[in-house]
């Protein structure tokens, strides 16, 4: 049995990961701004106040760092951009400072990142060595990863997962499209040809679990499924699973930019991302194809 501390435990991935880890017999704790409301044993932290309860390290073998304000779903105002940055970069720095100054026997640190580090237009199959971009989200991801890699200097095995769009029925991409599809107005975005690097929630959790337990894993891995498909294809799979037609016309790109501003460029991203490294590390995907992943979520 491994004792694991999770940040971001109330998010869709954190909730599912906690469930799967407990089913496998691991003991799971989390960091929370309000520990009394947590469904699992929790310790208090406050990123903005740079406060964290040092008792959270007691007996912990591995830390999984998922904390971060949602990137999609609202306009990126100046204040919200700061929230995106602080919740990722400064939270990681806070963990480093804790691990550097407090006694512990943490051996593994697994951190989230995002394929947004490659930018919004990736036509060549991007491995983990692909050049990083310089837009806002890419810059955040770079600083986020830099902070995570400082933990490696403490002789703690560090693994970073650059996550694609997580398919989950209750929130995020699938949920948003499903809501409009149920109203018979499901439609692809822009020309619908944008490649969408997706991963089923069970597989991203599976990759995190492998990163925790497989001591051979080190460094950065893309967390995306093998079958990178287009926005139009994914939209059609969602409509089909709900027995709804897909509109033959798409939502114009200018409308997405008008509604969501700078964040709209992320929604319209065209990213061809490779999962070769994680596959070669021995991870076997439960859902390789988007249609089977979406059917499992919605049918």
Describe the protein in words:
With 299 residues, the chain is α/β, with parallel strands linked by helices. It has helices spanning 12-23, 78-101, 136-150, 172-182, 201-213, 231-241, 253-260, 263-267, 276-280, 290-298; strands spanning 3-7, 27-32, 42-46, 51-52, 62-65, 108-114, 121-126, 157-163, 165-167, 195-196, 198-200, 219-223, 229-230, 270-273. It has one domain (3-232, 257-298): NAD(P)-binding Rossmann-like Domain (Rossmann fold, 3-Layer(aba) Sandwich). The strands form 4 sheets. An 8-stranded mixed β-sheet has the order 4-3-2-1-5-6-8-12, sandwiched between helices. A two-stranded parallel sheet has the order 7-14. Strands 9-11 form a two-stranded parallel ribbon. Strand 5, helix 2 (78-101) and strand 6 form a beta-alpha-beta unit.
Quickly count the helices.
10
Named CATH topology? Rossmann fold
Identify the CATH architecture: 3-Layer(aba) Sandwich
pLDDT averaged over residues: 95
Shape: globular
Order of helices and strands: EHEEEEHEEHEEHEEHEEHHHEHH
Number of strands: 14
Q: C-alpha Rg, in Å?
A: 19 Å
Main sheet makeup: 8 strands, mixed
State the share of residues found in helices, binned by percent: 25-40%
Strand order of the largest sheet: 4-3-2-1-5-6-8-12
Strand residues, percent: 15-25%
Q: Low-confidence parts lasting 5 or more residues at pLDDT below 50?
A: none
């Amino acid at each position: 049995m491994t004792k694991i501390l999770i940040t971001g435990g109330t998010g869709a991935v954190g909730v599912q990961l906690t469930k799967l880890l407990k089913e496998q017999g691991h003991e799971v704790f989390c960091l929370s701004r309000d520990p009394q409301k947590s469904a699992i044993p929790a310790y208090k932290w406050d990123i903005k106040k740079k406060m964290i309860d040092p008792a959270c390290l007691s007996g912990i073998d591995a830390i999984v760092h998922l904390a971060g304000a949602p990137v999609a779903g609202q306009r990126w105002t100046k204040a919200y951009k700061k929230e995106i940055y602080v919740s990722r970069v400064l939270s990681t720095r806070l963990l480093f400072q804790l691990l550097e100054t407090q006694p512990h026997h943490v051996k593994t640190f697994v951190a989230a990142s995002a394929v947004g580090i490659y930018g919004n237009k990736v036509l060549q199959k991007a491995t983990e060595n692909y050049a990083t971009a310089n837009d806002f989200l890419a810059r955040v991801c770079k600083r986020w990863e830099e902070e995570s890699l400082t933990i490696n200097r403490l002789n703690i095995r560090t693994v970073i997962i650059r996550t694609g769009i997580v398919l989950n029925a209750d929130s995020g991409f699938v949920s948003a499209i499903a809501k409009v599809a149920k109203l018979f107005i499901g439609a692809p975005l822009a020309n619908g040809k944008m490649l969408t690097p997706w991963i089923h929630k069970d597989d991203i959790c599976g990759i995190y679990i492998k990163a925790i337990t497989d001591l051979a894993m080190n460094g950065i891995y893309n967390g995306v499924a093998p079958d990178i498909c287009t926005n139009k294809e994914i939209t059609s799979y969602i409509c089909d699973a709900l027995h709804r037609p897909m509109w033959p016309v798409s939502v114009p790109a200018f409308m997405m930019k008008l509604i969501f501003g700078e964040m709209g460029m992320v929604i319209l991203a065209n990213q061809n991302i490779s999962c070769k490294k994680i596959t070669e590390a021995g991870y076997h995907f439960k859902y390789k194809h988007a249609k089977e992943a979406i059917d499992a979520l919605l049918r």
